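Help needed: design a sequence for this.
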């Protein structure tokens, strides 16, 4: 095998073990551990000879993906998340698909069960059409490097859409392959649900604005995203007596306003609660 698996984890110790046995045929597995879990690192590296856990200060999904790609020494890289459970022999099958395409591809993307395909399928406008995202995808390291990887200004969300857009602009082809993963909807421990949800909503709105600003410029991106701001304000008032829901919409407002003022994606979840 000539593939390195790169997995970004954050508070994922409850789920990540379920996937690791599937990757015994990979050349190497790199787990970029963003929650600095040294205990998980010790346990995994003791059990699996081909897995290395890289303890990383959390600077976002994009930075972690790029770090994993830089550390990979193989021809191919398979990126996935702790909650996207794949089937055995996935790596072998992906390398076979690459051979069938004579390596003339940008990304080979797995799909969840509801979006599965029966054969290799070219996606003509992937950054517009491929809304489920690319949580599990396979590509050549040199292609990833050629388009400079993920934009690290994105901390979370929309970075994959931006990545695919640049991939297509560089004339690389995007394919869905007849391999699926099981999306278990969340890779973190459930006790962090509320704080992670607040964090996700903040970054979703910040990233949405930043993506449109890259695409259309500052003023047009404000026009595009302002309805989301109005809606979040309405929902905040509606849920004034519901603290949990109110926190979500306040996070959306804050994310957008920070984007409008051109601030970095600084928000982090409070996991001490």
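Sure. Designed sequence:
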């Amino acid at each position: 095998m000539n593939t390195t698996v790169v997995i970004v984890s954050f508070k994922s110790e409850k789920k990540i073990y379920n996937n690791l046995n599937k990757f015994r045929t990979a050349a190497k597995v790199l787990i970029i551990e963003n929650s600095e879990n040294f205990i998980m690192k010790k346990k995994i590296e003791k059990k699996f000879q081909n897995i290395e856990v890289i303890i990383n200060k959390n600077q976002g999904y994009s930075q972690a993906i790029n770090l994993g790609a830089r550390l990979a020494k193989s021809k191919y890289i398979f990126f996935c998340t702790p909650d996207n459970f794949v089937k055995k022999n996935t790596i072998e099958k992906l390398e076979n698909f690459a051979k069938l395409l004579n390596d003339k591809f940008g990304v080979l993307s797995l799909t969840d069960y509801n979006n599965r395909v029966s054969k290799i399928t070219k996606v003509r406008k992937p950054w517009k059409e491929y809304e489920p995202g690319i949580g599990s995808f396979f590509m050549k390291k040199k292609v990833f490097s050629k388009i400079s990887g993920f934009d690290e200004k994105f901390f979370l969300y929309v970075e994959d859409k931006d990545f695919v857009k640049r991939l297509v602009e560089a004339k690389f082809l995007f394919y869905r392959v007849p391999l699926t993963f099981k999306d278990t909807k969340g890779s973190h421990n459930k006790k962090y649900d509320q704080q992670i949800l607040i964090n996700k909503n903040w970054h979703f709105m910040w990233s949405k604005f930043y993506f449109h600003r890259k695409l259309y410029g500052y003023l047009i991106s404000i026009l595009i995203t302002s309805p989301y701001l109005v809606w979040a304000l309405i929902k905040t008032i509606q849920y004034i007596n519901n603290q949990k829901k109110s926190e979500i919409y306040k996070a959306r407002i804050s994310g957008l306003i920070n984007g409008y003022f051109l601030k970095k994606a600084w928000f982090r979840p409070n996991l001490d609660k």
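The longest strand covers residues 174-183.
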